Amino acid sequence: MEELANGLSKIGNAFAAVAIVLAILLIVFFLASRAKGRAQGPIAGVVFLGPAVLLLIYGLVVPAVRTTAGSFQDASGKNFVGLANFGWIFTAPGNSTFLINTVLWIIIAPVLSTALGLTLALLLDRMKRESISKSLIFMPMAISFVGAGIIWGLVYEYRDPAQPQVGLLSQVAMWLGFDNPPNWLLWQPFNNFLLMIIMIWIQVGFAMVVLSAAIKAIPSDVIEASELDGATGWKQFSKVTIPMIRGTLIVVLTTIMIAVLKIFDIVRTMTNGNFGTQVVANEMYAQSFVAFDVGRGSALAVVLFLGVTPIIIYNVIQLRKERSVR
Amino acid sequence: MSVEAHEFVSLPSNLPEETIPEAARRRLSSPWASFVVIVITVLWTIPTLGLLITSIRPKEEAQNTGWWTFFTDPTATLSNYSEVLTGGSVIPGGITPYFFNSIAIAIPATVFALVIACMAAYALAWIPFKGSTVIFFAIFALQVVPLQMALLPLLQMFNKGWSLGPIPIFPDLNKAGSAQSLFAGTYIPLWIAHTMFALPIAIFLLHNFIGQLPRELMEAARVDGASHFLIFRKLILPLSVPAIASFAIFEFLWVWNDLLVALTFAGGTPDVAPVTAYLANIKGTYGAQLHLITAGAFIAIVIPLIVFFALQRFFVRGLLAGSVKG
Amino acid sequence: MSASMRRRGAALLVGGVAASMLLAACGGSSSSSESTAAASAAPAASVAAGCEAYAAYGTFDGAKVSVFTSILPPEQQKFEDAWKQFETCTGIDIVYEGSDQFEAQLPTRIAGGNAPDIAFIPQPGLLAKLVQAGGPVAAPQSVVDNVDKYWNPAWKNYGTVDGTFYAAPLGSNMKSFVWYSPKKFAEWGITVPTTWDELFAASDKIAKAGVKPWCGGIESGGATGWPATDWLEQIVLRQSGGDVYDKWVSHEITFQSPEITKAMDTLAAWMKNPAYVNGGFGDVKTIATTAFQDAGGPILKGDCAMLQQASFYANFWENFKPGTTIAEDGDVYAFYLPAIDDAVAPNPVVGGGEFVTAFADRPEVAAAQTFLSSAEFATAKAALGTWVSANSGVPLDTYANPIDKLSAQYLTDPNGTFRFDASDLMPAAVGAGAEWKEMTAWFAEDKPTKDVLAAIDAAWPAS
Question: Which of A230, A289, C363, C430 supports an S-S bond with C426, CB 3.0-4.6 Å?
Fold first, then answer.
């Protein structure tokens, strides 16, 4: 009972905080809206944009600058070492593993998630009762990485074939007649793909829901016109559907790519980067928070920034095109 | 972190009311498509089903046999759940206080991020000023900053203040004569941190939506002499409900599933830590307590699932910009 | 290996209150810093009943002391029970926070200006690192007095950085144990080995009987690999002695040196020997994917004969099978991992432990620190079971559990060759980084010994 009362009072406080912030905003709105004439626009701009810009500068811009500066420093973050940390990243023996793995992750996981999501979206479009499937496929998105780690542990767990199996994958392999299934997480290089499957499991729902919405939004007259022209099946898909949802496809792909590049939770919980499964983001975490090497950790973060940058630039170009059309 | 980078797709808001006619849909629906979808749905659900089943099995069975043997040897118990909820011989404290903490963390964090992002999105879309495009792209690009690198600088800001040389940029909030920040024991730093990390994505999404509301509507309101503040409150917010709801799902899921940010800014004691901290703790302490970990993990995903299913309707509508019937 | 300290799954022993009865009347030496306390010690006459022993600490009504540690429930409850009376009598509220992210969180919080008042640090290497960066405050005289009085100077040394003493030891782990099933040993006709050669003669005999004699698991989440570093340390100390061990810790002897290479070869013939491992789990490689918490399970089923693990493993047996008895004639018991050469290292023992480090010098923090270093606290905590302290003020008969008693005997043995866990003494980049990773690769990928050792040496920080 006391726990309940405590809990409820915490939630009450949370709502009070929300109310206070909203009240302050309303007062600011009221005061600012009394401005007249030419000052109105600039004042509104500052009030509306100010909080976000301030928070972003404090929360992301300054840390990004500091991290970049840190990447040129040694482990203690006190002495300038030039490009030594970057030299270490690209030349130290063993580091090629996480560089290659990260490239594999960025290509394979987003492409497969998007392709599977698109397939599902197309098939769902032809189904009557789609909502149950949609919800179930989307469900993994609601699960934390701690939870996902436990769930997939129950799939990939290895036991001696003579013992009762606990891992689903081994059991299925044995039902299919493989007497001695491999120790999945040790099974290089395929263990990387087994980890990617977890990411795909989480992301397909997202891709599916977004792409399904985009497909439904294709104006019916476009579809009908194409059908009058005799386009059906694959032809309709490649000549009509894909071009119509191209923008959406790019955004979905980009989004998953950025998520994948920054991902470290899956690798951290499943293998901790052992057995040849390390990726840049997890190495960054390990260097920064386990080895306390400020320089290398920051340099790896900078490699991540730079890795994402082409994707961002490509998207900005796309967005500009869209904006100019509008 | 899975949902962190999910932006949304810009879709035209002036879509025709109807999409593919019902007749066409029925013609297109095929048993083959349904079959494939059902197979994928089953595959996608099995791992989570394994979690659910393991969580209701007695300890011995859960540890030594695969969860699928439940179907041939169905022994079920709810004692795992009662032990996790209220504490038992193995874990002295239950998950309940953590549960309330998670709610008290997630609700304000979601609301603050949404409000501030909406305001910024409105300013960038409808208040014309020089450089708005540049700011928009800059915010979009901030997604590349790995949040792990922002943790330490932010923590320093909250506890020690920040100054650039002699100029204080953020005040030192320490109470005189004590090493405790004014924020100590509150969720304020945590809410602020979550808000900061969510902004790039939130602004990007909401800008896409708000920017595509009909121009005539805004202009008519301006002609009538409505201030930006009035337009924002009376037009933008009500019209953006679907987009706000869909982002609310993602932000809520993200904050709910976070562990790292919460541990850094609030700590791990039962009076402040979220459910994920409790899960990590049982996982850390009891390598062999599979029955408890799975029960805890399932409890932890219940609320996100409820939120998801409750807001799902809006979610799809948000993506479709109101063009498809609920 | 810090992880070893935190993973203690065990049934809770009841009787926290009873523990306080064991407290001796002596309240520790009075502290100089206490005299500067804002709150004044209550006069002896008005001390509440049961609080006589705590009068020397003073009273601090409403004061809070935060403790941050990697030790999680249910062990947490025993700590809270052990200092409950102290809290009642002094008015200090000790706020306990355990996290499995301790090693990553602590430096972040210190650098971020949010340091706890006290942290239980399991790695002297981490302590040294923190002192360099600034944060820990030197221990008050009262703590120094307690440590001088109750601990072997070696332990004091682990809490000392650059000549300044910071942290008093708390709990201790005896790592040189081999767990086995006495019943199965009797079945196989084997007596407990007392020399290294007997140990392996027994292993061969069990292997001939068709059972893999050894099992092991080094999977431990973010700390995967630590049990393997413990195995290596056992051999280095036994084979080459304390001096080499110390030089290895300080990197005067590298991992690629003949001594460490030889130890690796010995380990390869033991835990990487396909005829010996991995009982109940599969081939050698499964050592890398088996959770150390699960590793002992096959011993109870007879699929494996022996597991080299620390004293705290006593907590795990109940998990495998409720009602498992730990005794010389019970379901499971442990024997001392024999010496290799008494001339090189007599009675070698590798151990671990936590160190109570303060980050604030408020009087109530000093009082709590002093209490935690006292024989009274150690005795109260030890009486709650499955916990050992190297504090010589704890009477041996306080330990109810035979393994605890045995551990305490070895840890306080004046003739023994005691050394602290080497990986915990080394810089984190090696001791919590490269060494874990490379040892894991050695088992999982059969990475050549030469490459493993070279990679660990390469990770040693330059400064």
Answer: C430
Q: For A259-284, give the DSSP string.
A: HHHH--HHHHHHTTTTTTT--HHHHH
Contact check, Cβ <8 Å, A160/C281: yes
CA dist C367 and C58 (Å) reads 8
More confident residue, B39 or A246: B39
Q: Max alpha carbon distance in chain C (Å)?
A: 72
Q: Which residues pair with C165 in a beta bridge?
A: C160
Which of C437, C447, C452 would you mutate first to test chain A, the one with the most A CBs within 10 A? C437
Render pLDDT for C4-31 as a digit per residue (tens, 0 to 9). Answer: 333 333 322 323 333 333 333 333 333 3
Asked if C73's CB is within 8 angstroms of B92's CB, the reply is yes
A281: nearest CA partner in chain B = B146
Per-residue pLDDT tens over the stretch B66-119? 899 999 888 889 988 998 888 776 667 788 889 999 999 999 999 999 999 999
Q: In chain B, what residues touch C97 (CB-CB under 8 Å)?
A: 267-269
β-bridge pairing C177-180 and B162-164: unpaired
B268 closest CB neighbour out of C12, C98, C221: C98
CA A127 to CA C141: how far, in whole Å?
77
Residues of chain B in contact with residue C319, where contact means CB-CB under 8 angstroms, are 286, 288-289
Is the CB of C111 less than 8 angstroms away from the CB of B155? yes
Token representation of residue A201: 């499991």
Please give the span between the terminal C-alpha atoms of chain A, in angstroms, as a whole number: 58
Judge contact between C387 and C404, C-beta under 8 A: yes
Rounded to a whole number, what is the distance in Å from the CA of A259 to chain B's nearest CA? 6
Whether residue B12 has pLDDT greater than 50: no
Does any CB of chain B come closer than 8 Å to the CB of residue A325?
A: no
Q: How many helices (H) and strands (E) does chain C have?
A: 23, 12
pLDDT at residue number C432: 87
Q: Is the pTM of this model over 0.90?
A: no
Q: Is the pLDDT of residue B226 over 80?
A: yes
For chain A, the residue count is 326
Question: From CA A110, how far away is CA A249, in angstroms rounded?
Answer: 11
Cβ of B91 within 8 Å of Cβ of C291? The answer is no
Cβ neighbours of A237 in B, within 8 Å: none
CA distance A261 to A283: 12
User: Given CB atoms, is C103 within the 8 Å cutoff of chain A?
Assistant: yes
pLDDT tens readout for residues C373-415: 999 999 999 998 888 998 989 998 888 888 999 999 888 888 8
Model confidence pLDDT, tens digit, residues C282-297: 899 999 999 898 899 8
Is A62:B145 a contact under the CB 8 Å cutoff?
no
Q: What confidence tier does A174 reach under pLDDT thresholds 50, 70, 90?
A: very high
Tell me how many degrees the CA angle A165-A166-A169 measures, rounded to the nearest 5.
Answer: 85
pLDDT over 50 at C2, yes or no: no
Do B283 and C100 make contact, defined as CB atoms within 8 angstroms?
yes
Q: Residue B172: what pLDDT?
A: 62
Tokens 């008969």 correspond to what residue? C397
Task: Give φ, ψ of C203 to 5 degrees.
Answer: -60, -45
Token pair for residue C326? Answer: 């730990």
Report pLDDT digits (tens) over B40-79: 999 999 999 999 999 999 988 888 888 999 998 888 899 8
Option in C77, C97, C111 nearest B92 (CB) = C77
Q: Could you give the count of Cα atoms lying within 13 Å of C5 in the half-sphere of its Cβ? A: 28
* Nearest chain C CA: its distance from B82 CA (Å): 17
* pLDDT at site B17: 38
Rounded Cα–Cα distance for residues C18 and C382 (Å): 12
In chain A, which residues have their Cβ closer than 8 Å to the Cβ of B48?
Answer: 139-140, 143, 151
Q: How far is the C-alpha of B179 from the C-alpha of B160, rounded, in Å?
A: 9
